[in-house]
């Protein structure tokens, strides 16, 4: 883990959990949100969740960020890109519930905000080795969240946003970064010594295909100490008593992990890292074999624009299949090192049999049928790992 992400064990901790989603939930739930100056706690939470009325000011998704002067120093902000995983957007529910200000921006809006000079040129405190939770009472904390890679369109967002966000910090207002790396890490290298995000979320099955139910929150130690964790379970405390529920929370990462971690899954990661870093030649080999994210995005968008609806067969009443018109979208399929020709063929055959509109899948299906002949007899027995080895010399 240390070598894979370029982590300094003196600066970062690995908090094991079930998924990238849980890592994002942990940050949203435990972040030290400070409410807007005119915010009043709602009397009750509606059944559908929090509403815009429960926060002082809410900005619509768009370009330039608009912060009121009265809110700049003593109110927490949750700034997030429009393109984000739902699990990242879920952090906003916690921020909103605590009275923090929400700002949803596109890429241009984020760039414009980051290019603006900070309010306090002389009061920068980030990074600071002397920062600690004991001295944080007079500091307001805000959070910027963005994906390293958009898991839908494949857009890569600038990792330099991490340092530029930190540069917005002042003596009394500190900006932290939540980097969603779940879609980025399967095909790209991330070095936290160069990209010092405060929090990073990831899922291992997206990288190796196995094991499921195992993820991690990578956190800077000084940032992890700012998290306000209330519940504690086995292994999360150094000591606790039944009277008054007195406890001493263990330092991170143990204090942020409740109960027994998936130690069998953790032990199995060594085989995934061996395959990725040694047999496959590392992340650079993956990049050399893949198409550019911009090409992938352009192909997906071009297809979506050219066609508005697709017709699919669904069970509508009883067991009878009937055609149903649905808005067109995209199908994302992930291949791993051990995927075979038959895996891809089965997916295309499923789409061929299920969708009435067979163009463009029919073209690809035809190519696979042709490849499955004389030329494809060898390919059908070749795994992706073997193809990698043939191309990368591993």
Describe the structure.
The protein is α/β, with parallel strands linked by helices. It is built from 14 helices and eleven strands. The chain has a seven-stranded mixed sheet. Strands 8-9 form a two-stranded antiparallel sheet. The protein has a two-stranded antiparallel sheet with strand order 10-11. The longest helix is centred in the last third of the chain and has 17 residues, at 263-279. Residues 47-59, 121-134, 360-365 and 372-380 have low confidence and may be disordered.
Q: What can be said about this structure in brief?
A:
The chain is an alpha/beta fold and 394 residues long. Helices cover 32% and strands 17% of the residues.
Number of helices: 14
Proportion of strand residues: 15-25%
The secondary-structure class comes to: alpha/beta
What does the average pLDDT come to?
75
N-end to C-end Cα span:
21 Å
Q: How much is the radius of gyration in Å?
A: 24 Å
Helices and strands, in N-to-C order?
HEHEHEHEHEEHEHEEHHHEEHHHH
Helix content: 25-40%
Kindly state the number of beta strands: 11
What is the element layout, followed by pairings?
Blueprint: H1 2-5, E1 12-17, H2 20-30, E2 77-81, H3 86-97, E3 101-105, H4 107-115, E4 140-147, H5 161-166, E5 173-180, E6 199-203, H6 205-208, E7 215-220, H7 221-224, E8 237-240, E9 247-249, H8 263-279, H9 283-289, H10 293-306, E10 309-317, E11 320-327, H11 341-354, H12 361-371, H13 376-379, H14 384-392
Parallel strand pairs: 2-3, 2-4, 4-5, 5-6
Antiparallel strand pairs: 1-7, 6-7, 8-9, 10-11
């Amino acid at each position: 883990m240390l070598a894979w992400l370029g982590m300094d064990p003196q600066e970062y901790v690995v908090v094991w959990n079930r998924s990238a989603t849980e890592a994002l939930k942990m940050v949203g739930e435990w972040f030290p949100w400070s409410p807007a100056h005119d915010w009043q706690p709602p009397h009750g939470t509606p059944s559908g969740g929090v509403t815009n009325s429960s926060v002082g000011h809410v900005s619509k998704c768009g370009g330039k960020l608009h912060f009121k002067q009265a809110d700049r120093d003593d109110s927490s902000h949750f700034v997030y890109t429009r393109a984000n995983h739902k699990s990242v957007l879920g952090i906003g529910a916690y921020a909103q519930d605590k009275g923090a200000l929400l700002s949803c921006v596109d890429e241009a809006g984020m760039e414009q905000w980051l290019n603006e000079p900070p309010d306090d040129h002389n009061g920068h405190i980030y990074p600071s080795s002397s920062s600690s939770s004991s001295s944080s009472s007079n500091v307001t904390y805000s959070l910027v969240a963005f994906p390293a890679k958009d898991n839908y369109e494949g857009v890569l967002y600038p990792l330099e946003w991490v340092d530029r966000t930190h540069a917005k910090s002042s003596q009394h207002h500190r900006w932290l970064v939540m980097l969603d790396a779940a879609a980025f890490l399967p095909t790209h290298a991330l070095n936290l010594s160069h990209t010092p995000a405060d929090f990073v979320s990831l899922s291992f099955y997206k990288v190796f295909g196995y094991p499921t139910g195992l993820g991690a929150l990578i956190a800077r130690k000084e940032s992890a100490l700012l998290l306000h964790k209330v519940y504690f379970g086995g292994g999360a405390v150094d000591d606790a008593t039944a009277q008054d529920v007195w406890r001493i929370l263990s330092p991170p990462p143990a204090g942020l992990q409740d109960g027994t971690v998936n130690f069998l899954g953790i032990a199995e990661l060594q085989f995934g890292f061996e395959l990725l870093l040694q047999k496959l030649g590392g992340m650079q080999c993956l990049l050399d074999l893949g198409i550019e994210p911009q090409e992938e995005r352009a192909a997906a968008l071009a297809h979506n624009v050219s066609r508005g609806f697709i017709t699919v067969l669904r069970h509508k009443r009883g067991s009878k299949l009937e055609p149903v018109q649905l808005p067109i979208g995209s199908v994302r399929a992930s291949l791993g090192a051990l995927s075979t020709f038959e895996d891809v063929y089965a997916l295309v055959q499923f789409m061929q049999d299920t969708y009435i509109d067979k163009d463009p899948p029919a073209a690809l299906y035809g190519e696979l049928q042709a490849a499955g002949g004389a030329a494809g007899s060898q390919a059908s027995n070749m795994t992706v790992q073997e193809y990698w080895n043939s191309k990368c010399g591993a």
